[in-house]
Amino acid sequence: MTASPIEPNSSDPSRFRFTWSEFSGSLGDLGLFIPLVVGMTITMDLDMGVILILAGLMNILSGWLFRQPIPVQPMKAIAAVAITEQLTEGELVAAGLLMGVLVFALSGVADRINRLVPKAIVRGIQLGVGLKLAAKGAAYVGALPVIGWDSIVLAFGLSAFLLFMLTRRRQPALLYVFMLGFVVMALDQPAVYGDLHMTLPDLRWHWPEASAWAGGFLKGALPQIPLTTLNSVIAVCALSADYFPGRGVAPRRMAASVAVMNLVSVPLGGIPMCHGAGGLAAQYRFGARTGASVVMLGVVKVAVGIIFGGALLGLLTAYPMAILGPLLVFAGIELARSARDVAANTRHLTIALVTAAFIIGVDTWMGFLAGCALAGAFKIYEATRGKSSSNSGIDG
């Protein structure tokens, strides 16, 4: 993929631009952030206010340090296990702390890993994860009634609107659509606003009991390690280099950022967090071009978390899937489009497609291994063919 660089009229591409377009773009990752956070909060009885405050602070720091719309999102594998297998609070904290330590330990070799992993595999990761995100969004929409306020008809109508508005780059399309969701809630479920009241968050220290460390590692950290290493470090750095030529974030810095986020926020009541290629693709797609976008989003999260605290859970639970679904589809497609630049090379395309197929059919780790195996097989074949050609030349 040859991404469009920052607009040429920007004299300093690293400067902040506090505009509606930037803020609209920052909302691009909410299609993934909201469902995972709400699911974990409901399942584990967490404090939504604390989660938003800490996630918002990480948004602000990420935007300030990277000067790019690098997202902050829940760790997907840990979130999925927390929702489906109901991790204890201790296991969740242990998983987050362990991920912080492990990713920090890997940060010193992240640049070397980035050089060793073929670009075709990285593109395959982006393609596979992007298509899975799009499929998740489509599943949200498919489960809706055909007609109604929160319905398939509304989802398709909003998708058409987004497609039209995205051709007009100056229009903060996502901001309009996101705000529309609160209007739809008022029409479809007005009672949720009556339950909204000021509730201060309960910010306190959390530390896992001794028995929680094993479960946190086996059920949470272990399946998350490959996803974080590949998608939250290598793939997001590759996408950063595509979107911002000459200013791509180094894998070592990205890994260190993920580690610090978790070591600081998880013991205070936050959830395990990371950066992600899907979130960066979504935010860029909807207009985010500078670090100001995620700084503004972070300020909003902190303010809302302080003012409303845990009372936000009921509001976000009722947020229309007819809006979240299409946002997730658009985010997934944008990430998948990153693989276009390998289409011209049959061998690279094959590696990317096999990697993506295993990611979709099994998981990210198996996709990575399959891609590496195929890339290795191609290298062996090339070496064998080259040796044969050399021998033939000598014999002749």
Describe the structure concisely for a colleague.
By secondary structure, the chain is mainly alpha-helical. It is 70% helix and 1% strand.
Question: How would you describe this structure in keywords?
Answer:
single chain, 396 residues, mainly alpha, 18 helices, 2 strands, 1% strand, disordered N terminus
Written account of the structure:
The chain has 396 residues and is mainly α. It has a two-stranded antiparallel ribbon. It is globular and about 75 Å long. The longest helix has 32 residues, at 212-243. The N and C termini lie far apart (44 Å). The chain has helices at 20-26, 30-44, 48-66, 76-85, 89-106, 110-116, 119-142, 152-165, 173-188, 191-194, 212-243, 251-265, 277-285, 292-308, 312-317, 321-336, 346-361, 364-395, and strands at 73-74, 273-274. The relative contact order is 0.23. The protein has one domain. Helix 1 packs across helix 9 (173-188), helix 5 packs across helix 11 and helix 7 runs antiparallel to helix 18 (364-395).
Which secondary structure elements does this structure contain, and how are they paired or packed?
Layout: H1 20-26, H2 30-44, H3 48-66, E1 73-74, H4 76-85, H5 89-106, H6 110-116, H7 119-142, H8 152-165, H9 173-188, H10 191-194, H11 212-243, H12 251-265, E2 273-274, H13 277-285, H14 292-308, H15 312-317, H16 321-336, H17 346-361, H18 364-395
Antiparallel strand pairs: 1-2
Helix pairs in contact: 1-9, 1-14, 2-4, 2-16, 3-14, 4-11, 5-11, 5-12, 7-11, 7-16, 7-17, 7-18, 8-16, 11-12, 11-13, 13-16, 17-18
